[in-house]
Task: inverse folding
């Protein structure tokens, strides 16, 4: 059976060049990067080269990059560490209703321990209004955290405008860039962020490694204690192979971003147009907002999204109903509910996320395969009425 992968927002296949960059540090170059002998210094060189590549991808300085185990740790460290480092007994943080759970959950955990939390609404396209951010700020606000690109809809938030507000009020600003890094240009100086999270496996790197950008001078407490790695910000022996892989993935993303983004955008747009023409009713969530080029979130009423995912998988197409971290959740997507979708429509939604290996032929196959699957599932629904043939 021909198998097609349309779930790149969950994870991406590792690029062969990334694997090649990692292999030496899984075999003969096994040194501890904190050791002062030649074995250790060879490992240290690999770590610092990767740090420079990640910094170049983000428009940062190498010293401002801290390696982590991935996006979840980076988000938790940014949020918990920034709030812990902020002075004062009364503290307030601001986030949005469409954040990934790796942001919302640490924010809610802080709220249970006495930190005031404001969760801002979004419009029908999933965009935060920067003026809502301004109006939510209090004298005790210590952190604003808003994602750059949403993991379910791909919508790109007005980060630069929010960054100006945060800077004006001298509030630490964190952005979750896990779904943006490697897909769209990121310049931390232009965006005005103080903290920014990325994850390697979202742009053809290995799983289990990510990074947190920390602007020089930003107060941030460590989450862990027990060593002097990462400039005393994160203890533990560095995973040199994974870090080398992240560095290579960052380099490849930076060099090939423009051409690849335009190629994937054309495929995504063709897929959307074809499905909208072939399946009625249907719509694209966040389609009127700026989006990352690879992501399409489409609602096909009168069916269950999980039934669609299973049926399409049997036909050879891998996709999802939303965030992989929320897979199996009984409740409909909190992102789609925040956009104003009814629960039944939120449950009738597919996320189709394309990637580096997606081809025109795969789009053709999807357009031939998806509509009949949807029609078959709709005929099983007690609420669906098949349109009369004119």
Result:
């Amino acid at each position: 059976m021909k198998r097609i992968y349309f779930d790149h927002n969950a994870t991406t296949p590792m690029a062969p060049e990334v694997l090649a960059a990692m292999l030496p540090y899984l075999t003969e170059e096994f040194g501890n990067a904190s050791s002062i002998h030649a074995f250790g210094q060879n490992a240290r060189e690999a770590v610092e080269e990767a740090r420079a590549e990640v910094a170049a991808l983000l428009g940062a300085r190498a010293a401002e990059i801290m390696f982590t185990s991935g996006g979840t740790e980076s988000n938790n460290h940014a949020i918990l560490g920034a709030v812990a480092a902020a002075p004062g007994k009364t503290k307030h943080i601001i986030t949005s209703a469409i954040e990934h759970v790796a942001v919302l959950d640490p924010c809610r955990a802080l709220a249970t321990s006495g930190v005031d939390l404001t969760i801002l609404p979004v419009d029908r396209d999933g965009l935060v209004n920067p003026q809502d951010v301004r109006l939510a700020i209090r004298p005790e606000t210590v952190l604003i955290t808003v994602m750059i690109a949403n993991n379910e809809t791909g919508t790109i938030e007005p980060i630069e405008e929010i960054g100006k507000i945060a800077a004006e009020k001298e509030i630490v600003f964190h952005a979750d860039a896990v779904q943006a890094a490697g897909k769209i240009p990121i310049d931390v100086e232009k965006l005005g962020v103080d903290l920014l999270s990325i994850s390697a496996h979202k742009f053809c790197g290995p799983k289990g490694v990510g990074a947190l950008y920390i602007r020089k001078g930003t107060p941030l407490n460590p989450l862990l204690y027990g060593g002097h790695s990462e400039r005393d910000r994160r203890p533990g022996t560095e995973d040199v192979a994974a870090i080398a892989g992240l560095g290579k993935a960052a380099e490849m993303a930076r060099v090939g971003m423009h051409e690849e983004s335009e190629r994937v955008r054309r495929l995504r747009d063709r897929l959307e147009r074809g499905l909208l023409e072939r399946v009625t009713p249907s719509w694209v969530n966040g389609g009127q907002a700026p989006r990352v080029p690879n992501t399409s979130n489409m609602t096909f009423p009168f069916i269950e999204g999980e039934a669609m995912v299973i049926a399409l998988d049997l036909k050879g197409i891998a996709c999802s109903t939303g965030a992989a971290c929320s897979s199996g959740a009984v409740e409909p997507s909190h992102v789609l509910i925040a956009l104003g979708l009814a629960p039944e429509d939120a449950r009738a939604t597919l996320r189709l996320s394309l990637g580096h290996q997606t081809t025109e032929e795969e789009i053709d196959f999807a357009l031939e395969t998806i509509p009949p699957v949807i029609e078959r599932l709709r005929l099983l629904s007690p609420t669906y009425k098949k349109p009369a043939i004119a």
The chain has a mean pLDDT of 95. The first helix runs from residue 16 to 22. The chain has 13 helices and twelve strands. Residues 160 and 191 are 4 Å apart (CA to CA).
